[in-house]
Amino acid sequence: MRRGLLVLAFGLVSLIGFGQGQQGISVDKIIARVDNYYILRSELEEIFQSYKAEGQRTPERCQLLESLIINKMLLAKAEIDSVTVEEGQVDDQLDGRMSYMIQRFGSEKNLVEAYGKSVNELKTELRQQVKDQAIVETMQQKIAGDVKITPNEVRRFFNAIPKDSLPYIPSEVEVGQIVRLATVTKEQKDKLRQQLLDIKKKAEAGEDFAMLAQIYSEDLGSAKNGGDLGFAKRGAMVSEFEGAALALKPNEISDIVESQYGFHLIQLLEVRGAEYHARHILLRPDYNRGTDITEATRYLDSLHTLIEIDSLTFAQAAKANSEDKMTADGGGLIVDPNTGLARIPLDASMDPALYFALDSMKVGDVSAPISYRTEDGRSAMRILWYKSKSEPHTANLRDDYEKLAQIVLSNKKNNALEEWFKKAAGDVFISVDEEFQNCQIFGLAPKENQ
Questions:
Q1: Can you give the residue ranges of the PpiC domain (predicted)?
Q2: 186-283: what fold?
């Protein structure tokens, strides 16, 4: 088994899942099967191309196929063992994935335009894949969650590295942040509400709701379909939207509904069991010109004062007050997404805005409120805490124990997973197409068990 591909390959599948079908692939083929789970050639090819697009070292297709089969094995065994995940966990991970996609595309509007689908439609399409990933992670935890390491194991690992091969560690920093979102001005809210009220009057006077959605809605993905969002399962939409939609009778139009996405007019079309069919017209606030940072700045100024006079630690203030969910629970510390550690390389890979802010600070400083743009493109303010900075150095046990321990633990967990896969391979039906006969995946012969 090629270590490290397991989680990464599945993450890429989840990341690009709703992009399938946009590549113009007209001929497809099942290249592997694990019980009732199938792997398509297009799926493998998309992941292969995604590695290139991400600028990463591109693994061999055989390695990627093996990783996909491993994930399907985990799903198949989870089904056999009745392993499930909570829907709330899926919701949280789905929100995180959408935030990441919005960040990659620069804004929610750009994401919607790129895929020609609304955010809710994308979330609906992506939900099952996110749920599958959560099940895979749960299975991995079940298999290797009890694996532990000792300081002696870390020491032996470090001592086994030739001295002339020890990596050079660049300067790293620990940085905390407390984020407060800008508020949409009352003037802009009133303006958007009035615009939607005017549109509602047109619909009630007989104008076609679908045509009005095409003209006015800023949810570009659904606007081209007359605002139609299709059938949605209960719990798939944000609570404000769903509550308003389900309170309507078929063909009735709602009052103005405010959600995290903006302001909606909703028309319920049909309810079918646990699903409902609705369409909407969405107007979004202008987060560049239609927001007010006054309250956010005042709030952070007060926190800054409390921290400076030692009435409150930065970590306590972040946990209780930061509106950035990704960092608040960790006391505001910003985590390097590549390592999962709260140490960020102080180099060109750092967010430029953060880099220049730190350049004018000293270790221990807490900044005054500074402007900030969230991952989903919203205007905000934040204060930064420059907690620590390490000097560039050759890796050593004292300064880099946490990184080394992470590697040792990862290797040990992979060993546990490998042992599990060897045993589990006999419990599920696995078939690999003869096209990949040279891959020698788990030592299987092509079309084995068929």
A1: 170-270, 273-370
A2: Chitinase A; domain 3 (3.10.50)
- The Cα diameter of the chain in Å comes to 80
pLDDT, tens digit, 9 for 90 and up, residues 226-256: 999 888 888 778 889 999 999 999 999 999 9
How many angstroms separate the first and last alpha carbons of the chain? 23
CATH topology of domain 168-182+293-394: Chitinase A; domain 3 (3.10.50)
Q: Which two tokens stand for residue 232?
A: 């949605």
Residue 237: φ, ψ to 5° = -95, 165
pLDDT band with cut points at 50, 70 and 90 for residue 274? confident
Stretch 427-438: mean pLDDT, rounded?
85
DSSP conformation class of 195: H
pLDDT digits (tens, 9 = 90+) for 283-337: 988 766 667 889 999 999 999 999 999 989 999 999 999 999 889 999 999 998 7
Q: What per-residue confidence (pLDDT) applies to 379? A: 80
**In whole angstroms, what is the distance from residue 322 CA to residue 39 CA?**
42
- On the 0-12 / 13-18 / 19+ scale of CB atoms within 10 A, 395 is middle
Task: State the burial class of residue 159 (Cβ atoms within 10 Å of its Cβ: 0-12, 13-18, 19+).
Answer: exposed
Give, in order, the Cα–Cα distances in Å from 361 to each of 317, 355, 365: 20, 10, 6
Q: What is the pLDDT of residue 81?
A: 87
Instruction: Give φ, ψ of 415 to 5 degrees.
Output: -65, -40
Instruction: Provide the CA 165 distance to its chain's centre, in angstroms.
Output: 35
The CA distance from 233 to 276, in Å, is 7
